[in-house]
Amino acid sequence: MLLYTTARAPNPRRVEIFLREKGLSVPSKHVDIGKLEHRTESYAKVNPVQQMPSLELDDGSVLTESIAICRYFEELHPEPALFGTSARERAEVEMWQRRLEMGLLLTVASVFRHSHPFMARVEVPQVPEWAAANRPKVESFLHLFNEALAERPFVAGKAFSVADITGIVAVEFMWPARITLDPGLTHVHRWFADMGKRPSVIENPPPPSA
Amino acid sequence: MLLYTTARAPNPRRVEIFLREKGLSVPSKHVDIGKLEHRTESYAKVNPVQQMPSLELDDGSVLTESIAICRYFEELHPEPALFGTSARERAEVEMWQRRLEMGLLLTVASVFRHSHPFMARVEVPQVPEWAAANRPKVESFLHLFNEALAERPFVAGKAFSVADITGIVAVEFMWPARITLDPGLTHVHRWFADMGKRPSVIENPPPPSA
């Protein structure tokens, strides 16, 4: 196995946190997205969509999509369960993972990709109106998220799951997207502080300059 | 159980095709999105995100997100398997489901939501530049999809799966989004014609006026 990954990007970080929670170590190859190495022909042979991360398997085939890669490791190493343990829990984790992904990670990423000067080379065309349209979406999702967290320690209920991981990288990603986490969102702050104490999350935090 | 669903919308249709493939019938309640019934307070009590569909369980709790609902039914009724049968297959289905969802369903939906006059009431603000930015994304994904389908009968390989269902509704959704499926995409055309023969797909097709 070979994991193509990169520093300072939310999706690779999701897989890295997931692997540390599982206690797994996988050989990896660093692709420098700052130098647009993920847009080269050689990386296109690994992943035609040219996104990060990718997992090359021993037969030479390649799995992409962070959550597909995480789910594959969950199948190979079921403990600790990070996708839930019963039919009902698995559905709740899937629901919250997707809510966080579509409602927060994607909206924050849209603000970042369509407003940050660095992304002008990558996101063509940049649509500043789309960044602006996503700011209130981030805000309204965070209010809903805050209410949900009032009743539980983790995103999907009583246990840490892949839904928390998506939430962590999404909230971290607000920093480069230049979105402030409203101090009034007390449950989100409490949850994010708790998450920040996990060894899987502390390791390799995104640098302040990210 | 009670499934809140609606006609002529891609996500509710995903769940409906999924249930028919499983041979399942679930009591349902129709919510008229044309009348914005999904934006009412009473529906917000069912699903605070106010999206469709939602599945109310017998204990009164509610599952949302099409794929979370489908996965729940997969757990309760494993046959026929629509999320893959081995660790590797399940990862491939997840990968392709997500590729189709992010690369095609979401991009086509972005064109529709940000260009169709009907959506001006729902998608506030409409960003026509975002619709325009998504058209080439749809096109480039379809070329990649076409190449992938050259080698296999179904999206994720040898078996019909939930990834095909996402693909079906995404291609159907090109019609109201006013995007033409290039006749040169022969493998996509062959696959879509094959899918259209399945009883689960023929039933309740979206009307031409959708």
How does this model look, in words?
With 210 residues, chain A is of the alpha+beta class. Chain A folds into two domains: 2-76, Glutaredoxin, CATH 3.40.30; 87-198, Glutathione S-transferase Yfyf (Class Pi), Chain A, domain 2. In chain A, 51% of the residues lie in helices and 6% in strands. Chain A contains eight helices and four strands; from the N terminus they run βαβαββαααααα. In chain A, strands 2-1-3-4 form a four-stranded mixed β-sheet, with helices on one face. In chain A, helix 1 packs parallel to helix 3. The model of chain A has no long low-confidence stretch (mean pLDDT 93). Chains A and B meet through helix 3, helix 4 and helix 5 of A and helix 3, helix 4 and helix 5 of B.
Query: Share of helix among residues of chain A?
Result: 40-55%
Write down the oligomeric state.
homodimer
Distance between the termini of chain A: 28 Å
Number of helices, counting only DSSP H or I runs of 4 residues or more of chain A:
8
Question: In the residues of chain A, how many domains can be counted?
Answer: 2
The largest contact between protein chains, plus residue counts on each side, is:
A-B, 29 and 29 residues
Corresponding CATH architecture of the largest domain in chain A: Up-down Bundle
Shape of chain A: globular
Residue-averaged pLDDT of chain A, rounded?
A: 93
